[in-house]
Write the structure tokens for this entry.
Amino acid sequence: MQYRQLGKSGLKVSLHTLGTMNFSGEGFFGMAGSVSLKDSQRLVDIAIDAGVNMFDTSNAYTTGKSEEALGEVLKGKSDQMLVGTKVRFGMGAGPNEQGLSRFHIIHEAEASLKRLKRDHIDVYFLHEWDGMTPVDETMEALNTLVKQGKVRYIGCSNFSGWHIMKCMMAADKHNFEKFVVQQIHYTIEAREAEYELMPIALDQGVGIQVWSPIAGGLLSGKFRRNSSPEVSRHLAGWSEPPIRDQERLYKIIDTLVAVGEAHSVSAAQVALAWLAGRPGVASIIVGARNETQLKDNLASASLVLSADERKKLDDVSLLPLIYPYWHQCNSAAERLGPADLSLYAPHLASREPPM
């Protein structure tokens, strides 16, 4: 297992994080599967044996039941096991039971600690943007939790680029703790994060932790033009991520399968290995319904893709530049920095050389 630094922090996290959204899953979150406490214990043991040192959950996953299950199965394990959880979504019908207000953040952090049976949260994420709460209030609440010792590091999830920078500016202005990680959806099919979020990771030291890295199974190789699995979260009504170009998706899957066959591994492993080599990626959240899925995902840590294989995967999945990026690529190419080039480099490489 590889261990990577989480953003600008000194914290080392395993390349793979075990996702626990389906621990005791039911209702909406049951679409991702429901893993019993006994089976959750087995998955955690397999992950730890493979070198995983971080586990991901949220207070919103089945209204705290995922946190409760994770707290139970980690009880008695090494205190070196890291836990990340989140706050933002509704935990009840009251007017202050959602959002990123000081009231809700501190209330839910204390509730999460009780469910997790821990005295601190290693990484506390803002699960989604809240445009109704001043960012100074939100960042002050997180800073308070860090100063109290209840939270070690802070991050955000599903923020746009300007949301992140607004929060970082507020933290800088008041000398508050800053985000060291952003948890985002990023796959070889869904590369929109490369427009803003990847450059921010490199420029600001807000490392990337990826959720749903094989798009809920879409990139596993089981979904093909003329066949699909009998059971999947997508067939059960799960709508994320949106697929806007089905033919492009199938071309990507075909390439993943071909590269996987060359290595005698699954398409899922190739998708995970591609992500592991992308700029700014610190950790990839892998979840599983069963032991077989988890062991296959974890095995991707040892898969090495050749430069030619990476180019094939890059070429089949590269997104077009939208404005203002195409204009910058055309007009500012001679003064682009490393963070800029994380987006522009493949587009510049494909250009015809000047006469």
